[in-house]
Design goal:
The complex is a heterodimer. Chain A is mostly helical. Helices cover 77% and strands 3% of the residues of chain A. Chain A has helices spanning 3-35, 42-58, 63-84, 93-115, 138-160, 162-172, 174-179, 184-206, 217-231, 235-257, 259-276, 280-289; strands at residues 128-131, 134-137. The longest helix of chain A has 33 residues, at 3-35. Chain B is mainly alpha-helical. Chain B has helices at 2-11, 20-36, 43-68, 76-94, 100-125, 130-149, 190-212, 214-224, 226-231, 236-262, 272-285, 290-311, 315-329, 334-345, and strands at 157-158, 161-162, 169-170, 176-177, 184-185, 264-265. In chain B, helix 3 (43-68) runs parallel beside helix 7 and helix 3 (43-68) packs across helix 11. Chain B: The chain crosses the membrane at residues 21-40, 52-71, 78-96, 102-124, 131-149, 192-220, 241-258, 264-283, 290-308, 314-335. Chain B: It is a multi-pass membrane protein.
């Protein structure tokens, strides 16, 4: 195997890991950055997106449209959850985690009761391509570019739109933003729905590549946690660089010892990083900048 | 008599509800009832009660870390699993002769506590708090579960103990007490019941002394305001680590007792769902008081089992709803809120 092929293979695996980490974590990170709340039902929103996507795809609609449906339905479920549960707990962020864990239990077991233990999936689209005697799935490249697109989209949303300005004002000083006429409650609701929608998008994007089971959320949740912890509260200065660093660890460990050691590598990295940078990468970067 | 009053004085304090002769008479009545109970019941029901008791230790540990210390440790089942597997590995390799099972219990709990020291050092000395503490401990648990689930192959063995992957380990010897004229084997029946009940009472009373000591008061001060506690000169990292290790050891004790009870331990006893259940028990009862935690855990566990028998698949949904409702309506916990209401009704002193 020549150097070019080897480099491509490494890059491909890095891209795959990077996409998985960014997409797993972005919804969680948006909600965490905004409200300081970790949504433990994050995995279940991903599961919701995946189930809706596959159900819609089974009716014959093209996959991109089905994925969009998955994201929208998840966002709507998120808005509903925010209205019923989360809204009443803004004063108590630690209790929110516990409540969302309860929601996660309800969602996982509820799905199992309503839809059974598994659901027929859809095949991975686009097939594969050959490079230096190895075959690579084209869809994984699509996922990588989707991860970049999600980051770019979030950047545009938070920096160039009216919602983004209001959201950033609410993050910085909620009371001041409220005094200036920002409906902070609405901003929180929309952010939670956005986070849930991003989780649904992730579920939809990964639905063709995995088996649909009610517990599929836990496949993503550990990676999402790890990325958010390493990244800290900021999506762009935190989640993206954290995902890049962790993707290196994960892809190296995975190709060396397999999937599980990829995860153990992530966990060990996290425990070391929090010992050194308790506020994550974004906390470190922002302190340097200030 | 004087020594006895001093002993009781140490069991009472601002951090626990229940004080005075009335409470302790009630405690003795309940204890007597618990001691007599096997006389009026069959072996199976008694064994089942032991099953409930084995979980209470983990709940009490979580109450200490989360309720008193304010640190969200969502990974109690990791210590549960570590201790359970350690017990299995030790006893399968070295057998049950000469009371080795008792040594194995101590060693297994010590291994879980040692793991907690290692993990807790990074967490608390890295000053991880609040939300992050919860998700890191939970991540550790999830990875541990996945690690144990993939140990199905024959290469995963420690001595003569196969780890058996997702199916878990079984056939480890039950607790055995060496006795002249034949060892006493504690099968999940009346004998094991008395041993576990004794342990439970001991742990409960020791925890009462602990939380009402200066250690417990500092722990509560840290929960209420970590900066203030630090300004007052306490090294909050050491106190939190201490509580974390004690809680982990109790979770480990649960794990060992569970393993000896069913002679069986699997990776799913550490998974996401398994990790959520202690949170439900402790939150529903009232996490900031060990008596409420104890009662709440037993009530929720028996309700959960009754539900499992009558509508197995809905039990977890009910647990989830119970957790959400508790957080929304009675954040201090149902029993603790109820107890404080009754306390106010009778105009007793104190905030209990």
């Amino acid at each position: 195997m020549d150097v070019g092929t080897l480099a491509f293979s490494a890059l491909y695996q890095f891209g795959d890991a990077f996409a998985f980490l960014v997409l797993s974590a972005c919804g969680l990170a948006v909600i965490f950055g905004m409200m300081g709340v970790i949504n433990l039902a994050h995995g279940e929103f991903i599961m919701c997106g995946a189930y809706v996507t596959v159900s819609v795809a089974h009716t014959g609609l093209p996959l991109p449209l089905a994925i969009a449906c998955g994201a929208i339905v998840s966002a709507m479920v998120g808005a509903l959850v925010e209205l019923i549960v989360i809204r009443h707990l803004y004063e108590r962020p630690l209790d929110t985690i516990v409540a969302t864990w309860g929601l996660s239990l309800i969602a996982t077991q509820g799905t199992l009761i309503l839809l059974g233990s598994t659901m027929a999936g859809v095949g991975t689209p686009f097939g594969s391509f050959q490079m230096g005697g190895y075959s690579y799935s084209l869809y994984r490249l699509v996922l990588f570019f989707m991860a970049l697109a999600v980051l770019a989209g979030l950047y545009a949303l938070f920096n160039w739109t009216r919602f983004g300005v209001m959201a950033r004002a609410t993050i910085q000083v909620p009371h001041m933003a409220a005094a200036l006429g920002v409906d902070t409650r609405l901003v929180y609701s929309l952010t939670f729905a956005l986070g849930a929608g991003l989780a649904g998008l992730t579920g939809g994007l990964y639905a063709p590549t995995m088996t649909l089971v009610p517990t599929m959320g836990t496949t993503f949740i550990m990676e999402a946690f790890v990325t958010v912890v390493v990244g800290g509260a900021d999506v762009f200065l935190g989640t993206a660089p954290a995902a890049a660093v962790l993707a290196v660890v994960k892809s190296v460990m995975t190709s060396w010892q397999g999937q599980l050691f990829g995860q153990i590598g992530l966990l060990v990295t996290v425990i070391i990083v929090i010992r050194v940078l308790p506020k994550g990468i974004s906390g470190f970067l922002l302190r340097e900048r200030a | 008599m004087n020594a006895l009053t001093r002993f009781f004085a140490r069991l009472e304090g601002p951090q626990t509800i229940g004080r005075g002769p009335g409470f302790w008479i009630g405690f003795l009545v309940v204890l007597t009832g618990a001691c007599l109970y096997p006389q009026f019941s069959d072996g199976y029901t008694v064994g089942n009660t032991v099953y409930f008791f084995t979980w209470v230790f983990m709940a009490l540990g979580l109450s200490l870390i989360w309720g008193y210390g304010g640190a969200l440790s969502f990974g109690q089942t990791a210590f549960f699993g570590i201790a359970g597997y350690s017990y299995g590995i030790l006893t399968i390799n070295f057998g049950a002769a000469y009371g080795f099972t008792l040594v194995a219990v101590v060693l297994a709990v010590a291994i879980a506590a040692l793991f907690a020291v290692l993990l807790g050092y990074f967490l608390f000395f890295g000053r991880i708090s609040g939300v992050f503490l919860g998700i890191v401990t939970l991540s550790v648990t999830l990875v541990l579960e996945r690690f144990m689930a993939q140990t199905a192959g024959p290469e995963w063995r420690i001595g003569s103990a196969r780890l058996n992957g997702f199916n878990g380990m079984s056939n480890m010897p039950p607790l055995t007490i060496p006795w002249p004229g034949g060892d006493i084997v504690l099968f999940p029946d009346v004998q094991l019941y008395y041993v576990v009940l004794g342990l439970l009472v001991l742990v409960y009373l020791l925890l009462r002394i602990l939380v009402n000591s200066s250690f417990g008061n500092v722990l509560v001060a840290i929960r209420e305001n970590p900066e203030r506690a630090e300004m007052l000169g306490y090294d909050i990292r050491k106190y939190q680590l201490g509580a974390f290790v004690i809680g982990a050891a109790l979770a480990g004790l649960s794990g060992v007792l569970y393993t000896t009870w069913g002679q069986y331990i699997t990776p799913s006893s550490m998974g996401m769902t398994a990790a959520a259940l202690p949170i439900v028990w402790v939150a529903v009862g009232g996490r900031s008081d060990i008596t409420s935690t104890l009662i709440g855990t037993l009530v929720v566990l028996s309700a959960f089992q009754a539900l499992t028998i009558h509508g197995s698949q809905y039990a977890l949904v009910v647990m989830g709803i119970l957790l959400v409702l508790t957080v929304l309506i009675a954040p201090r916990g149902l029993i603790l809120s109820g107890a404080s209401r009754i306390g106010r009704l009778f105009g007793k002193r104190g905030d209990a």
